[in-house]
Amino acid sequence: MNTSTFNHASSSHHSPRPEGLCVASFGGGHGLFQTLRAVRLLDPASITAIVTVADDGGSSGRIRRELGQIPPGDLRMALAALAPQDEEGKIWEEVLQHRYGGYGALAGHAVGNLLIAGLYDVLQSEVQALDAVARMIRAQGRVLPLCEQPLDIEADVAGLGADPRIMRQVRGQVAVATTVGQVRRVRLIPESPQPCGEAIEALQKADLVTLGPGSWFSSVLPHLLVPGIVDTLNSISAMRVVVLNLDAEPGETAGFTAERHLHILTQHASDFRADAVLVDALALPSEADRVHLERAAANLGARISFHDLREADSAGVYTSRHDPDKLAAALKKVYYGN
């Protein structure tokens, strides 16, 4: 189902370069994992995942606190998503994602996290460490950190006290993602981190850039708060596509409509411009809701494109995850306009 499609051919953007489509994808966690699986189906000449580095929970949080490195968990997941789908590649994907059990010092650590951390200790470069893992597993793309220093997220949250008008500050990705209050705004600490130079270069070479899906406040918006990222996105000829979440997430975006997600994006990055916003057709059955969403997208300079994007389980029941095949088809239709 597609009630409104952005026609790439009629825009000011260029067709893919002769050597093929170059894609850059922003995100983190499971949302980026599904996006990368979808992007691979476009048979691009290159894929670059640009990954948020604010995680402070679990294995990533421990490595961050004990070793002072950027949290590797979302980076590891992106690498796993880019592992070849042959027998050896699937083994590497499983190894990277494997977590130690038990109650000892390694309990809860993912093998891929420790591998990235160890390579950083040897190479003293986050980018070189990630490139080394990518070569080892024959990754079908490159994974880069948003910044080469760990970031913190601090949020203004309402509803944590007796007076719902009073804002309280909540710090840390896990705390923000699981708050019982209503997140109003987030900021990065440090306030003006240096973006990864290789990530900027990847954006400048891209034909297609995707933002989302993912935890809106803790995995999607942080990319647009890093100085230089929005300016770069607005200066390039690539098509910029926002992929909206299928559902509001418990905690940080509980009760959010699709329209609210776009308003929040605009509030945090008022200068950011996009070309298309991909929305699951089942998420907005009301024509009035669609009109409101189209107006919110227009504030970004974007058109709405509705598609069947939701993954179904083995019993045919829809889940809260994007289906890579459906997302790939939607991206192809939006980009090529056919």
From TrEMBL:
Keyword tags: Cytoplasm
InterPro entries: CofD, CofD-like_dom_sf, Gluconeogen_factor
Keyword Translocase: no
CDD domains the record matches: YvcK_like
Compartment(s) of residence: Cytoplasm
Main localization of the protein described in the UniProt heading: cytoplasm
Domain of life: Bacteria
Name recorded for this polypeptide: Putative gluconeogenesis factor
Organism: Corynebacterium felinum
